[in-house]
Amino acid sequence: MTESPASSQAPDDETVAAPAPLLTLRDGLTPVIDTDEALAAYAAQLAVGTGPVAIDAERASGYRYSARAYLVQLRREGAGTALVDPIGLDMAPLVAALEGTEWILHAATQDLACLAELGLHPASLFDTELAGRLLGYPRVGLATLVEELLGQRMRKEHSAADWSRRPLPESWLEYAALDVEVLVELRALMATALDDAGKSDWAHQEFEHLLGFKPTVRVDPWRRTSQMHRVRSRHGLAAVKLLWEARNEIAAERDVTPGKIIPDSAIVEAAIAMPQDRAALLALKGFHGRGAERYSTRWIAAIREAAALPEAELPPRTLRGDGPPVPRAWAEKDPVAARRLTIARDAIAGLGEQVHMPVEQLLTPDFLRRVLWTPPRTRQPEELLAAVGEQLSAYGARPWQIELTGPVLRDAIIAGDVAPPEPTA
Question: Where is coiled-coil annotated (predicted)?
Answer without folding.
Answer: none
